[in-house]
Amino acid sequence: MKRLVFVIFCWQQFIVAEAQDVLNVASQKFEKKVDYRTGDVLLLQLEKANLTLSGWDKDHFHFEILLKSKHKSRAKAIEELAFLKYSLSKEGDTARFYNFFGASDKFQKVQGILGLDLIIHAPKSSKLVVKNAYGTTRVQEMEGGTSIYGKFVETEVNHFRGPLSMTSIFGSVHLTDHEGDLLLDLSRADLTAKNVRGDIVGKTSYGKVSIASITADQVIFDSKRTAFELDVTQTLNKINFDLSTQFGKIEIGTPINATASGSWKFDGTSAATIKITTTFSPIIIQGKSFNAQKP
Amino acid sequence: MKEIREKINQWKGAPQTSWSQEELWRSIESGLDGESKRRIPFSFLRLAASIVMVLGLLWWFADRNKITLEKEPLTEYRQDDASFSSIDVLSEGKRFITEACLKQLAICTSPSFKVLYAELIQVEEEKIALKEIVNQYGQDEASTKALIQLKNAESSITSELISMISS
Phi and psi dihedrals of A107, rounded to 5? Predict the structure, then answer.
């Protein structure tokens, strides 16, 4: 009898110990389809959402929505899952999706962790407006005009063609293989980009802009406390430079064959222009065959 | 009474009340010649249809709106690491800035100071917004990181404002 009690006690301890080391994840999955006509706009207003949006050749939007609730207690995880709400509608030429915290009491405080995974397939040419906060945004293989806003969001855009406008506050932005005009507004956000072709106009503060393999047409940054590191594909002599940094250094060429502090200008042999103004930070431009005289 | 019984016996249309064994079997055998028709009871069909319908509905709802349960390793993000509390050096710094500007120092009216001070206010507002999000969605890695970013921003802005006043 004593042995039986001991075994039961050990088993209970094992269950309790196991319960303390794991989170129970309750999730609910929905799939939706929305028709698309040429020129339609997809508007996404998200919070605490992990968004993955990919372009495809079909003529409709496809939504895969996964609501998730995590808690040590399974019952609590299931209970709090009910707080996650979303809405999907189409009015005129705009398909709109948004999610929200749907407790009846506005001041309800959850005990677990709630979130949303959203996987969307959209016709490549559809226009996008994405607003996300406290989550992640990943957009790929799109070609329409796109506007992305993120607050505390890690944003990633890959294989994108067309005009792109990005605003990020307290969140980093990663851009790979972009062809088209780029409009940036970054505050306390870093930008890392690779293979970028097109005009770039940016306003940045408290961050770092690092672009590898940029084919510059017009690159204009009006920045504050932002460090720049650009690797240009063109021969540097062809580019018009107008660089200025308060309390920072300027380095041009690989290997470095022009340095300056304060400001530096150079008239290139083509219309391509790089104009950067920043403060308290360096500007480093790397590229081929720079033969300019030292300023 | 006797007369009535006799009349009934004489009546040819009266139902037969007794049969010989032979007659009876002949009658049964003649009925067995044709193919018999098997009738499925109507109630059985209804029952089967109901079962199919219920199973269909169960599949429909179970497959679409089913709550899935899984387990994952526990990672806790404590507020101790990045507290919303502002009883620290930062609040002292802010008090210093407020008191200095109440003395109507010229630096407090300069455009660069005003821009920076507005940023500090914005960071304060972001902290309030983040607190609301944590209440609603819980504290995870992303919200902890956001809070640390805000505290770092608050710290750098505060020290910059102090150095502007002190210089």
Answer: -95, 15
The residues that bridge with A113 in the sheet, in sequence order, are: A70
Q: Count how many pairs of residues, chain A against chain B, have C-beta atoms within 8 Å.
A: 91
Question: Are A47 and B133 in contact (CB < 8 Å)?
Answer: yes
Token couple for A99: 């999610």
Which residues of chain B make contact with A246, given a CB cutoff of 8 A?
A: none
Using an 8 Å Cβ cutoff, are A136 and A69 in contact? no
Half-sphere exposure of B113 (CA within 13 A, CB side): 18
B141-166 helix and B89-102 helix, angle to the nearest 10 degrees = 40
Q: What is the mean pLDDT of residues A164-191?
A: 96
Out of B69, B140, B150, name the one closest to residue A113 (CB): B140
SS3 B126: helix
Yes or no, beta carbons of B136 and A103 under 8 Å apart? yes
Tell me how far apart the alpha carbons of residues A241 and A295 are, in angstroms, rounded to a whole number: 12
**pLDDT band at residue A233, thresholds of 50, 70 and 90?**
confident
| A60 and A33 Cβ atoms separated by less than 8 Å | yes
Give the ipTM. 0.82
DSSP 8-class letter at A37 = -
Cβ <8 Å between A29 and B68 = yes
State pTM to two decimals. Answer: 0.78
Give all strands (DSSP E) within chain A, no chain letters: 22-35, 41-47, 49-56, 60-71, 84-91, 94-101, 113-123, 127-133, 136-140, 146-151, 154-161, 164-169, 173-179, 182-187, 191-235, 240-252, 258-266, 273-279, 283-288
Which tokens go with A142?
Answer: 């799109």
Pick the more confident residue, A68 or B16.
A68
**So what's the pLDDT on residue A294?**
45
**pLDDT exceeds cutoff 50 at A295:** no
